[in-house]
Design a protein that fits this description.
Elements: E1 2-6, H1 16-29, E2 34-37, H2 44-52, E3 58-63, H3 65-72, E4 81-86, H4 93-96, H5 105-111, E5 113-122, E6 126-128, E7 131-135, E8 139-143, E9 147-151, E10 157-161, E11 163-164, E12 174-175, E13 181-189, E14 197-205, E15 207-211, E16 216-220, E17 223-227, E18 231-244
Helix pairs in contact: 1-5
């Protein structure tokens, strides 16, 4: 049985035609199922717990990267099979997983190519599938209890990634390699009369502890969070079972 979770922003009228096409294609494949919608008034964690106790084996997230990350953290059981139908803005992970946007993603669901995908874990309780970013203002980083890095420039950006798709990789996916997280520090040398220069420092670590003498706002996809110091980051012992496409860029 399939269980579909729609993000709240898909209630906008501009998405109604896309959702109708998706639901029609799912019915054609015989993989339609119950639909629930994310709502500020709904305790989605309790809803999922109750619904998924009814023998559901496949949960399909309909939304964007943020939706996918949010639902991963609400699932009572990560051994479920997870599908993804990207709709709307801020979708980068679908390119990595070989999943087209909109109704064409239904073809990927029907083929059911399943891969185990690693997750990052923050302070032993919050999962992330892609990466986290923070300012390098007075930050101390401990890698593997082996070496330390100090960053004290406000215009520096620290990125810890499980999967990354952005500027410092020229849009080429950077994924964890042999259970190592990627740590990148971007430094910008600002000059008054000439163009600023950017420098990147790359590290790998299995566990990372980030500390500061003040709170550290971090950015997870497009959601800002303040997490109590120190911030401990490592790869989760669990992996998700994700339905991916043949043209995936994740190895």
């Amino acid at each position: 049985m399939y269980y579909y979770i729609y993000d709240n922003y898909l209630n906008e009228a501009k998405y109604s035609n896309t959702l109708s096409k998706i639901e029609s294609r799912l019915a054609d494949f015989g993989i339609n199922g119950k639909i629930t919608r994310i709502s500020p008034l709904k305790n989605l964690k309790l809803t999922l717990r109750d619904d998924l106790n009814q023998g559901i084996k496949t949960v399909v997230v309909v939304g964007n990267d943020k939706t996918l990350n949010q639902i991963i953290n609400l699932l009572p059981n990560l051994s479920l099979t997870l599908g993804f139908i990207p709709v709307g803005p801020n979708n980068n992970l679908c390119n990595i997983f070989g999943i087209p946007e909109g109704e064409e993603a239904c073809n990927i669901l029907s083929q059911r190519i399943i891969e185990k995908i690693s997750l990052g874990l923050i302070n032993d309780h919050y999962y992330f599938i892609s990466y986290l970013e923070m300012s390098g203002d007075n930050i101390n980083i401990n890698c593997n209890d082996d070496y330390y890095i100090s960053v004290d420039k406000k215009n520096s950006i620290i990125t810890v990634s499980n999967i990354y798709y952005g500027e410092y990789t020229n849009k080429i996916p950077l994924v964890n390699n042999n259970n190592w997280l990627n740590l990148v520090i971007k430094n910008v040398n600002k000059k008054i009369f000439s163009q600023s220069k950017e420098f990147f420092s790359y590290f790998k670590a299995k566990k990372i502890k980030i500390d500061s003498d003040k709170s550290i706002p971090i950015l997870l996809i497009d959601e800002k969070r303040i997490i109590k110091n120190p911030i401990k980051v490592n790869l989760a012992p669990e992996k998700i079972n994700l339905i991916v496409g043949k043209n995936r860029k994740y190895n």
